[in-house]
Amino acid sequence: MHAYRTHNCGELNKSNADETVKLSGWIDRKRDHGGVLFIDLRDTHGITQCVVDEGSPLLAEVEKLRVESVITVTGVARVRPGETQNENMATGDIELYIDAIEVQGAADVIPFQVAEDDGAGEEIRLKYRYLDLRREKMQKNIRLRNDVIFSMRERMRGQGFQEFQTPILTASSPEGARDYLVPSRLHAGKFYALPQAPQQFKQLLMVSGFDKYFQIAPCFRDEDGRADRLAEFYQLDIEMSFVTQEDVFNTIQPVIAGIFEQFNDFTGTDHKVIWGEHIRYEDAMMKYGSDKPDLRNPLEIVDVTEIFARDDVEFNAFKGTIKKGGVVRAIRAPKVADQPRSFFDKLNGWAQKEGAPGLGYVLMEGGEGKGPIAKFIPAEELKQMSEIAGLEDGDAIFFVCNKEQAAAKFAGRARDAICDALPEGHVAEREKSVYKFAWIIDFPMYERDEQSGEIDFSHNPFSMPQGGMDDLENKDPEQVYAYQYDAVCNGFELCSGAIRNHRADVMEKAFSLAGYDKDVLEDKFGGMLNAFKFGAPPHGGCAFGIDRIIMLLADEPNLREVYAFVMNGQYEDQMMSAPNDITPEQLKDLHIKLNLPKEKVKAEEAA
Fold first, then answer.
1. CA-based nearest residue to 399, from 384, 385, 378
2. Which of 281, 287, 409, 437 has the fewest CB within 10 Å, making it most exposed?
3. Phi/psi class of residue 226: alpha, beta or left (left: φ > 0; alpha: ψ in -120 to 50)?
4. Is 3 exposed, middle or buried (0-12, 13-18, 19+ CB in 10 A)?
5. Average pLDDT over the chain, rounded to whole?
6. Would the pLDDT of 30 be above 90?
7. What is the pLDDT of residue 316?
8. How many other CB atoms are there within 10 angstroms of residue 225's CB atom?
9. CA-CA-CA-CA torsion for 511, 513, 515, 521, nearest 10 degrees?
10. Mean pLDDT over residues 467-488, rounded?
11. pLDDT > 90: what percent of the chain?
12. What's 198's DSSP letter?
């Protein structure tokens, strides 16, 4: 017989009755029923009920064992009496009567419960992550991650893509976030950077003649943590040669849709997978107030600036902002006249917590407007507003006024807040059990910094401008659009991509408009720029965030629930004590002297 097990803990059934078997695993629970001791023995495959019978010489030994101890048990499998069978367990019709037990690893008192959720906070869960990972939910999530990545690889290879691994130690480059830097021991004063993405390398592979690249790529960005962003993350990274934007969409869309269709019932509820239309960036910001809109929310934003700018509309709270170039955005909330006053007060309070004076509205009843703003809007203007927003009796319309960018973003948040405030079963409630995708396209190539007034890239600097060199030379930079696109689903950006700029002359011009002279371009991107001078094919691609995909499939609110080992929100690994101090000898090897903040120096001196 095997040293540790003949079967796993999720395998035994009635067909194994009267067999002598051996199981190994963790003690999930112990129950004493009047001298008969029951043990739920758990491994990654499942749970088997084991029994130490009354009068057994093993009883005293087993009673001393704590939960989460690892044991090996040998005994005879028997069918449970009919009334004790558990149809909710894969092994619920059988139990193992223990004849011998061996303790493989005794457990101390555990800091939180594994067999059930006892409300342990994130900090202690991450400190003892190996215990947290024993939980059934975490085991399921990690298996989902494994299965999704396996399916991605199969689907990409099925379309003729080759898998590559690109360097982890590379050069720092301006890609929109801070780099994690690694000092070089051999080259004093110089640093490597961990890749924010394998952007340049995958483009160089296209220049090298490889037609279809993909990678399950690790990426690193030194940004502040949040629920849907980590310092280290993985993406399904792809690149293709001789393709248009539509070719990229038609290639990757079946892969991602297939993943969601394959795992759509992971949470126990079937979800529809709907890939909708292509939405221009400007339209997304206008209609939804976000470039990653949640299309399950049926509410839409309209512009009513022109109406509030009229002389006979005397609402001065908006007038002053409009005269300074501001806009008024409005969101229709259908059939809310029957909602209590608290519905409107709650939304007003939400707006105030967000830093706004409030969330003004007009309620339509009997063809007339009611509410705090209605008296300022004459009947003719109210009629036109109703036509713009599609208002009917019983509807309300909420207003946001600010400069254009700020108004768009706040209206987007208000759109979600209004939808969330609607009661269950409302005609405009957020759709359930559906993954709603869309491509956001036609991103502006550049944006102007509101503080400095300077032009910089708005997204990926390696994108091809839609009008090529002609647009760069003859248009205002803010009117230049790029072949850039995002894929969004249920309010999350899952993918970013572009048709790349494969011409050295166009790249030099594009970077010059953003303030990067040729010397900087040669220094930061010389390898790729020079490669383009030796014949580069048109190419494009994208990258889908694997972690966000799994977070959506598992219906988890936080990326840390779908990783095995992660840091907390402050990017500290309390289990491994990272980041940590290094010795003076290590600093000397790296030719580095520390210049610590005064607060840290004082704290160390006090300690």
1. 385
2. 409
3. beta
4. exposed
5. 93
6. yes
7. 87
8. 17
9. 20
10. 95
11. 81
12. S
How far is the CA of 48 from the CAs of 10, 90, 203, 464, in angstroms? 7, 9, 52, 59
Q: What is the pLDDT of residues 57-73, one digit of tens each?
A: 999 999 999 999 999 99
CA distance 527 to 500: 16
Chain-centre distance of CA 547, in angstroms?
6
What's the token pair of residue 117?
Answer: 């959720």
The number of C-alpha atoms within 13 Å of 460 and in the hemisphere containing its C-beta is: 27
What pLDDT is attached to residue 484?
97
| Mean pLDDT within 398-413 | 96
Instruction: Count H helices and E strands in the chain, helices first.
Output: 18, 22
User: Model confidence at 223, in pLDDT bands (50, 70, 90)?
Assistant: confident
What is d(CA 125, CA 129) in angstroms, rounded to the nearest whole number?
6
Q: Is 310 left (phi over 0), alpha (psi -120 to 50) or beta?
A: beta
Q: Are strands 539-545 and 361-365 parallel, antiparallel or unpaired?
A: unpaired
- Is residue 403 a contact partner of residue 326, using CB atoms and an 8 Å limit? yes
> Are 541 and 239 contacting, i.e. CB atoms less than 8 angstroms apart?
yes
CA distance 126 to 576: 10
Is the CB of residue 197 less than 8 Å from the CB of residue 239? Answer: no
User: pLDDT higher for 104 or 570?
Assistant: 104
Give the up-direction half-sphere exposure of residue 594: CA atoms within 13 A in the CB hemisphere.
Answer: 12
- Residue 29: what are its φ and ψ, rounded to 5°? -145, 155
Q: What share of the chain is helix, strand, coil (3-state, %, to 5)?
A: 35, 25, 40
Residues 199, 170: contact at Cβ < 8 Å?
no
579 upstream amide cis, omega within 30 of 0:
yes
**573 DSSP assignment:** B
| End-to-end alpha carbon distance in the chain | 57
Checking phi first, is residue 242 left (phi over 0); if not, alpha (psi -120 to 50) or beta? left
- Identify the helix (H) or strand (E) that includes residue 66: none
For residue 356, which phi and psi values (nearest 5 degrees)?
Answer: -95, 160
**Tokens 């509820």, residue?**
269
Cα diameter, the chain:
95
Beta bridge partners of 95: 78
Tokens encoding 403? 């400069």
Which residues, other chains included, contact 119 with Cβ-Cβ below 8 Å and sequence gap of 6+?
Answer: none
Q: Which amino acid is at 157?
A: R
The structure tokens listed for 364 are 């339509």
The DSSP 8-state label assigned to residue 311 in this structure reads T
- Three-state secondary structure call for residue 413: helix
